[in-house]
Amino acid sequence: MSDNLKRAAADRAAELVTDGMRLGLGTGSTAAHFVSAVGERVRAGLKVVGVPTSEATREQAQREGIPLSTLDETPDLDLTVDGADEIDDDLRLIKGGGGALLREKIVASASQRMIVIADGSKLVSKLGRFPLPIEVVPFGLTATERAIVRLLDSLGMSGELVLRHAPDGAAYVTDGGHFILDAHLERIEKPNVLASTLNNIPGVVEHGLFLGLATGAILATGDGLVELGQ
Ligand code: 5RP
């Protein structure tokens, strides 16, 4: 069921793609449906260029026959379509469940529009139930972890930080060669404050709070599509 909903949101987003667009291609199971839908349209003659947000998406887009570029060659994008782990009414997001948050945030920031596609279960009244991914450099992991805990304390927040592991049991390594700490916070009362202060900690590369980046969302529910923003 959920997969059909993801596909429905992705298909609607693919309808918004027009000839000549420079596209940011998101990562995750919902974004994969979008890449597949764009691939179908490209094989039918649509002319676009895509900038993938992960190596996994690059491989999929190549298989689909979507012409690809890098963000260095194509630094201004028209539209990025990506999934999310949580989205609130103000189009604030938690992303990074799939581990691609750093490239996703760089690509979204280079886009005129970012549309989030998701099944309706991702819409929340308050962010934070989904553990917040924090990408950190491996060097000094323990020191960085302690600095994050001190920051959370100072903000009156608490929650376990869990180093993400790959299925083989080793620490999960991102496309950028970093680790991810998943912060189990339950509620994020002030996303802006947390986002800006996390970015001040040496060793933190990026975090999964996407604030002011999404311009629209397409949420698929059992009752149909809900579109927010544009
Ligand atoms: C990857 C992401 C994904 O967009 C997010 O995890 C949603 O994934 P899915 O569509 O598989 O639920 O942020 O880093």
Automatic annotation (TrEMBL):
<comment type="similarity">
    <text>Belongs to the ribose 5-phosphate isomerase family.</text>
</comment>
<dbReference type="InterPro" id="IPR020672">
    <property type="entry name" value="Ribose5P_isomerase_typA_subgr"/>
</dbReference>
<feature type="binding site">
    <location>
        <begin position="27"/>
        <end position="30"/>
    </location>
    <ligand>
        <name>substrate</name>
    </ligand>
</feature>
<feature type="binding site">
    <location>
        <begin position="95"/>
        <end position="98"/>
    </location>
    <ligand>
        <name>substrate</name>
    </ligand>
</feature>
<feature type="binding site">
    <location>
        <begin position="82"/>
        <end position="85"/>
    </location>
    <ligand>
        <name>substrate</name>
    </ligand>
</feature>
<dbReference type="GO" id="GO:0004751">
    <property type="term" value="F:ribose-5-phosphate isomerase activity"/>
</dbReference>
<dbReference type="InterPro" id="IPR037171">
    <property type="entry name" value="NagB/RpiA_transferase-like"/>
</dbReference>
<dbReference type="GO" id="GO:0009052">
    <property type="term" value="P:pentose-phosphate shunt, non-oxidative branch"/>
</dbReference>
<comment type="function">
    <text>Catalyzes the reversible conversion of ribose-5-phosphate to ribulose 5-phosphate.</text>
</comment>
<comment type="subunit">
    <text>Homodimer.</text>
</comment>
<dbReference type="InterPro" id="IPR004788">
    <property type="entry name" value="Ribose5P_isomerase_type_A"/>
</dbReference>
<feature type="binding site">
    <location>
        <position position="122"/>
    </location>
    <ligand>
        <name>substrate</name>
    </ligand>
</feature>
<dbReference type="Pfam" id="PF06026">
    <property type="entry name" value="Rib_5-P_isom_A"/>
</dbReference>
<comment type="pathway">
    <text>Carbohydrate degradation; pentose phosphate pathway; D-ribose 5-phosphate from D-ribulose 5-phosphate (non-oxidative stage): step 1/1.</text>
</comment>
<protein>
    <recommendedName>
        <fullName>Ribose-5-phosphate isomerase A</fullName>
        <ecNumber>5.3.1.6</ecNumber>
    </recommendedName>
</protein>
<feature type="active site" description="Proton acceptor">
    <location>
        <position position="104"/>
    </location>
</feature>
<dbReference type="InterPro" id="IPR050262">
    <property type="entry name" value="Ribose-5P_isomerase"/>
</dbReference>
<keyword id="KW-0413">Isomerase</keyword>
